[in-house]
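Hi F.,

I've been meaning to write this up properly since the lab meeting, where we talked about keeping a consistent format for the predictions we share between groups. The idea is simple: the sequence comes first, exactly as it goes in, then the structure tokens exactly as they come out, then a line or two of notes. No screenshots and no reformatting. I'm using this chain as the first example so we have something concrete to point to.
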Amino acid sequence: MFELLAATTTQPTTNPLTAFLPLILIVGVGYFLMIRPQQRKLRAQRELLNELEVGDEVVTAGGILAQIVEIDEDEDVVTVEVAPGTSIRMLRGGISRRLVDEVDDEDEADDGDLDEAEEADRSS
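Output, unedited:
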């Protein structure tokens, strides 16, 4: 009987770190795949709200397209115009994104392509 007890106690012990290593790896991967991108997204949203100016066209959290008419920094409230003569006061946090005109960049790229095509026609 003592031999049985001696045999069970002489087995090599495993390092507790190796038992928790998969769990630690899963938590680390979860942090970089889920938590970190969410923090970046929240930081970008905070920067957007801080950079809002009068005249910006925005989309509210409810999906309403509007233009900022007035910003009250003290109360953290913005007044947006949703239609001519129709204004709404809302919390600054209710703005989900800013509409940006990207057409200007595309037009410049198209103009450059046309110039190259015209030069090719002239040289032929």
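Notes:
Helices lie at 2-9, 16-50, 103-123.
The chain is about 50% helix and 25% strand.

If this format works for you, I'll send the rest the same way.

G.
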